[in-house]
Amino acid sequence: MEAADSPQGRDGGSQRRSPLDVLMSQIRKKRSDRKPLGRFLSWTSERTGTPEDEPNCREETRPGPAPPEGERDVGWGRVSAFLQKLGKKADSRSLSLAHCDLTATDLLELASLLQSLPQLEEVDVSWNDLIGGGLMAITSHFQLVGGVRTLRLCGCRLDGEDVAALAEGLGYTPLLEILDLSWNSGVGGGALRSLLGKLQPPLRELHLVACQLTEADSSALGGMVATLPRLCVLDVSCNPQLVKDSNGAAFNQFAASLSQATPLTTLRLQASGLTADSLAALGTSLSSLPSLRELDLSCNKHLSGGLSHLTFYLAHVAHLESLDLHLCALTRADLEALIQVLPTLTALTRLDLSSNKEVGGVVHPLVSSLPLTQMRRLPLNSCSLSQESFTALTLAVPHLRSVDVSWCKVVGGRLALLLDALQPSVIVELRLSSCQLTADDLHHLAAVCRRGSLSSLRVLDLSYNGSVADDGWSAVLAAGGLASLEDLDLSLRPSASASCSAWLPVLIRGLPQMPALTRLALQRWTATSQERRRLGRGTKSRALLVEWDSDITDSRRQSSSHDTPEE
């Protein structure tokens, strides 16, 4: 299989997107959202939901003395003008400036405006890679916005001096609850250790994804945990050097310190270099985390053969709802150890074992050990399913909100078995990429759509199924019953190419029956310029992103009367 065609390289490989997928989507968004002249930013930025406030967990913000009314009006006018220049609306409590192409000069101007924002609680300047090296321009004014509770600086090319400046600035933000420095390779090292020492007790979330953290940083993280009694979310994914030394002593120290983080609800260690030995230290701490609900250990192939070190302690994590072990090279022994403990995880709703080929041989005992009535996600893409294991999977399908069997060739010609097991109005995501589907499979899919069984479906991935005849595509596109569909992917694999002229008119006629559709992927399908214009006219009055091969047609830019906020 070509590298470009591998399942790990596609967004559909896992239900929760990996940090790498997040980075790539942010980069694509940044490129596609720019206007030809000047800056462009959607009216509302993408915002990650924050945990609801816990009783008695938040101190009252004490803003500095208010300036005289005249000065306040003039200052607010400057704030509004600055944000309007960036395509943003002024908000006294939130500065959402992600993807704004901010420069060092912009930072200086922004810093001068902070005195007019005494009620500011959220600052997001993520994905502005030109501000790296100049962060002190704004952090030196943090004393003017001491009530900030959320600070996001993802993907800003921060260096050691920036981190040092931020560490000093954090001394003026005693109410900070969320800090996100992800995707800044210059964060790891000595500068980070000084910053961790400045974090204060109200902090509830710390995100350090892909920061090139070292084993020395893992020791510093361990020392930090004891000083943050409210820490709920810790994400250090995509830092493969965390477990670097041969005996893993530094990481073991960090893992042991987690036992003190009793409020922890989310722990993400994806692609962090975990080994079978490091799982033993981690497992010991798990039994002391009664509130843990999400555990992500995915993309750690070196833990293969050692999962039993962890599963012994998993039984004590009574409230665990999500366990992610995709792409971990799990062995048959690993899976058997996991299956033994699954009946004790009565709160489990999501288990990701995708991209582990040995899973295909244990699907029946796996499904039998799960609390099926509450399971919502069980992706088994790239799991070498056999006919027997595919049949066993249908036992869980009626309860699942998301079904992903991509890259499983056994699905082709047998899709009816899965579709007939679906519970009407329950399924919201169906991924069938590279399943060698046939025209008969899609005709059966069309029949299920007409019955209304997929009325709640939001994501349908039929990509990389180039062997389907034209009448199969036409049947699905004409079926209706997909009023809730938001994302439809019909792309061919990178090495393929075919004309969509036979079914494109059916698609155009069927679009009114898919009013919620916001993304339509048609990569590697060919169409004449006239056919593309016809599709463009059919989507002009709606916010629909159409992806062809290397270009992207965005109908949101084609109609000035529909500049609606992005969700």
TrEMBL record:
<dbReference type="InterPro" id="IPR001611">
    <property type="entry name" value="Leu-rich_rpt"/>
</dbReference>
<protein>
    <recommendedName>
        <fullName>Leucine-rich repeat-containing protein 31</fullName>
    </recommendedName>
</protein>
<dbReference type="Pfam" id="PF13516">
    <property type="entry name" value="LRR_6"/>
</dbReference>
<dbReference type="InterPro" id="IPR042419">
    <property type="entry name" value="LRC31"/>
</dbReference>
<feature type="region of interest" description="Disordered">
    <location>
        <begin position="1"/>
        <end position="74"/>
    </location>
</feature>
<dbReference type="InterPro" id="IPR032675">
    <property type="entry name" value="LRR_dom_sf"/>
</dbReference>
